[in-house]
Amino acid sequence: MANRIVIPLPLMTLNEYTNEQRKNRFSGASAKKKQTAICEFYVKQAMKDGVTFDIPTRLKFNWYTLDKRQDPDNIAFQKKFVLDGMIKAKFLENDGWKQILGFSDYFDVDKENPRVEIEVE
């Protein structure tokens, strides 16, 4: 088993999240909570499978999307939900400077299995 966390996509993109925020603050908060809970579930699954990262760490995000219709920055926004899910799952104590040294994002298309894979860089 590789030492990585895999979360199925799609999660909510930046544009979708912004639209929820514009509806009203409660709608935006509810959407964020739901997306974070999805990520928390998959992080906990990875933890059960023995996935661990040394902290502090530099994270590599491999984004595999259905197609190229979303801009990479719109996709990479989803890491907010992933990191918050890691905290909720108690995989990370926090996502601050003491824990996270940096990020790298890579993008590709996988029509059969859209997902994000998170691993130590």
SSE order and pairing:
Blueprint: E1 4-8, H1 14-23, H2 25-48, E2 57-65, H3 72-76, H4 79-88, E3 100-109, E4 115-120
Parallel strand pairs: 2-3
Antiparallel strand pairs: 1-4, 2-4
InterPro entries: RusA-like_sf
Organism: Carnobacterium maltaromaticum LMA28
Protein name: Endodeoxyribonuclease RusA family protein
Mean pLDDT: 95
Strand content: 15-25%
Number of helices: 4
Note the main sheet: 4 strands, mixed
Tell me the domain tally: 1
Radius of gyration: 14 Å
- CATH architecture field: 2-Layer Sandwich
Architecture overview:
The protein has one domain (about 5-45, about 55-120): 2-Layer Sandwich (60s Ribosomal Protein L30, Chain: A), CATH 3.30.1330. Helices cover about 40% and strands about 25% of the residues. It has helices spanning about 15-25, 25-50, 70-75, 80-90; strands at about 5-10, 55-65, 100-110, 115-120. Strands 1-4-2-3 form a 4-stranded mixed beta sheet. Helix 1 crosses helix 2 (about 25-50) and helix 2 (about 25-50) packs across helix 4 (about 80-90). About 25% of the residues are buried. The model has no long low-confidence stretch (mean pLDDT about 95). GO terms for molecular function: magnesium ion binding. This is Endodeoxyribonuclease RusA family protein.
